[in-house]
Structures are given as structure tokens and as C-alpha cells.
Amino acid sequence: MIPWRKRNRGSAIESMTVWGCSLLFVGALLFPVRPLHASARFSVSGKVTLDTVYRLDPASLEQDPSAIADVNVNWRKSGWDIHSSLETGWDGAVLHPVRDNAILKSFDRVYQDNTPYVEFKELYLERQVGSLDVRAGIQRYCWGRLDEYPVNDLLNPWDYTRFILRPLQERKIGAPSISAVLERDGNTFTLVWEPWFTPYRLPEPYERWFPVSALRTLSTLPGVELIPEEPDPPAETLANGAVGFRMEHMGDIDWAVTLFNGFDPRPVFRTTALLVMPTSGTGVRIDPGFVPSFHRITSIGTDGDWATGDWSLRWEGAFAFNRSFDVSEQLWGYPKVLAPGVFPLNPIELQRNTLDYGLAADYRLGDNRFLQNAVLTLQAQQTLIIDRPDALYQKEVETLLWGSLIAFRKNHRIELSLTLAYNPEHGDWMFKPGAYYVFTDSLKAGVIGLVLRGPSQSLFGAYSDNDQVEIQTIWSF
Fold this sequence. Notes:
The strands form 3 sheets. The chain has an 18-stranded antiparallel barrel. A 4-stranded mixed sheet has the order 8-13-12-17, with no helix packed on it. The protein is 6% helix and 49% strand. The chain has a single domain, classed as Beta Barrel (Porin), CATH 2.40.160.10. The radius of gyration is 23 Å and the shape is globular. By secondary structure, the chain is mostly beta strands.
């Protein structure tokens, strides 16, 4: 029997929540709210993004246009603050929203193919008393100093449905949590408790950014329907929560120490059995036989930065206990020829301790007739896998090199960006140029390119068919 994914819990309550919150935000946009008295403050801001993706490889999976709105609402009264960050719209990367009737994205599912959709990135109540700040609700955190892959930033799982296309903060999934921040004598102490587990999110096998390269190829075959199994999340008990602690010191050199105990937000899989079932006609329905897996880790890390003149240096490192990896895809045990039936697969998970570390340098280039406010960033980071087994695709040391340039031209009317990334162990790389024209302070439009190359299991090579050009318009309010 095909293991169909479970429905969202409390769909009626979620629908009421969606429509109630939607009316609240629409009303806030159409009818500006004035404070009732001097101690109250209400503000609304955000942006609307329209984008169209043109694939450069005809073999690549298609993607529909998207229209996404981000709305931030802040309300302060009598020492209390309510902050909400909501994302809603039509996600063109979701190609087959046939099994998800819910609009509100849930906090307990990995595969979510709902569009249109509503997601609360943040929704929390805040109270500040003296030097103590307490927040409760859905929150996102920014721990660490490196770009793209900060190794101490473990409290929020990531949404991998757009891979590297979205900025780091937008990839984060808000986690229900309670946080307390205490500032004293130039030091900041932050304690975070997440009482419930929130999983990462993955795209479906028939969507552009599905991470397993072998099945991305299989999904393009005519008549093949892949039905991945939704995993059972850890039980909603206090033992399955997460705790994070961070101490920051501000001075000539800013530095921090971070402790984390909870579930690793990086995705891995466990195997079950491949199920191949013929359907009416010449079609085939396949349960690929692997399920997203969740494992607890303990991480101890430190990071810091130092600035002088036009230069700034950032560094970060962390030692993680019992991090999980999947063995090379060739060892998963898939048959060479697909035939109807049930095929048990090999165990694929291994646990190892890891040491992650990295260094970044930022340099502000002087203004000239070609570029204005240009900032060049160079970053290198490595992962050392302790006692690495030969079954892993990853090498004992994995290196990721980043280079980026952000600049403006013609009195900030033209915004330019260029990003390069390279993994020398596998020879995979990414090239991402972009250019926007700024019409007003609220409106800009641009073109972003993306080229990915490398072996099929490498970080960038797994998506080598996904070269694209994206046309994007952003209206801020």
C-alpha cells in the first residue's frame, strides 16, 4: 500500500486563523492606524516580490511565476511589544499542489506542497524590564558570523525548497520558543528554549530543488509518479525540545561563545524499502524508500569579528557531537532495473563528530567612476569529519570557498551583485550574477543569473540542470 502523507492537524482551526490574520493584515495596509495615545505605537512594513524563472537547460524541471508578500507588523503599548513577520503568496516552485488543501504552513511536516500559502516567520510577544528582554512565540535567531552557512546558527531549521536562491534569513523557519536576553557590563547573555521540535522542509521529488540527484532524474521519466513518505516527527515532549545559550562580548574585538543541544537542522535520510507499483495504463507509482531523519546533536562553538578602517574580519568555529551523514548514493541498494515489487534498501546513516571552522574578510573599495559603495567579501570554511569512513561521499575535509561583490552605479540607481562559490574536493561550483535598476526608494527590478556545475552528488553539481535566469520586481512599503 502506498504510504500517503498525513494531513495537517487542526485544519479547521488553521483555516480560521488564516482568514482572520489575512483580514487583519489587509486592513492594516488599506487603513493606516493611528495610536490611541502617546504610549502606543503601530507600524506596518514589508515587500512584494514578483519573479519569473527561465530555465536554460530544456531537461530541467519547469517553475511557474511566483508572487510573494512579506508583511511585518509591530505594535508597542505600555512596555509590551507584539511583532509579526508573515509571508504569503503563490509559490511557483510548487508544481503539483494536489495533496495539500491547507493554506497555513505547519510546524510538523517536511513535505508541504501548499500554494497559495501563508507562513508566520515570526509572531512573538516581547517584554523588556530594565536590562532583561523576554520573548515568547515563533522566533528566528541570528547566531554566528559567517555568510550562507554559519555553523553556530542551529536554532532554526531551514526551508530547502529554494536552495541557495533565497537570502539566509528568509530560508529560516520560525521556531516556537521562549528567549531571554540579559545585558550587563558590555556582555550579552541569551538563553533560548524550544519546547517542541520543528523539522526542516524539503521540496518534492518532482520539483527543481529536490536534493537526491538519482531520484531527480527518475522523476522526469514519463509515467513515473514519486510519492515520498512523510516522516513521523519526534514526540511532542519536553525531552525532544532544544536549548541554546550564547554569551557575547562587545569591545575592540567582538566575540561570542555558543552552546546548543537539540536536533540537527541539516537534512539526512534513513531508508525503508523501495516500492514499485504499476498503475492503470503504462504509469508507475513509486515510494522511493527513504524518509527524512532527525538526530540530536550537541554543539560547542565560538565566533567573533574585528574591524579597522575599510577592513573587517569574521571567524567562526564549532565542534558537534554525533552529527549524522548519509553514505554515498551508490550504496543505498537501489536495483539497476526497476520492476514491480518491494525492494529492501541498505542502512545509510552514520554518526560522526565534526569540527567546522571558517574565516571571512570584508573590504570596502573606494568610490570611483565605475562603482560606488562597493564591498568585496572573501570567505573560506571547512568541515573536518572525525574518523571518516570510506562509505561517505564527503571527504575527510570538506572546503567551501565564497567570493561576493556588492556595488552601486549612477547615484545608486544600478545595484550590482556577483557571487562565486567553489568546493575544491569535488570540483563543483556556483556562479550567480545579478543587476537591479532602482526606480524609486520603494521599487526596483532586476535580473539574476545562476549557473551550477559539478558531480551529481556534490553540493552544487546535484543541481547542474537548474541553470536559470530570474526576472524579479520588488516593491517595498
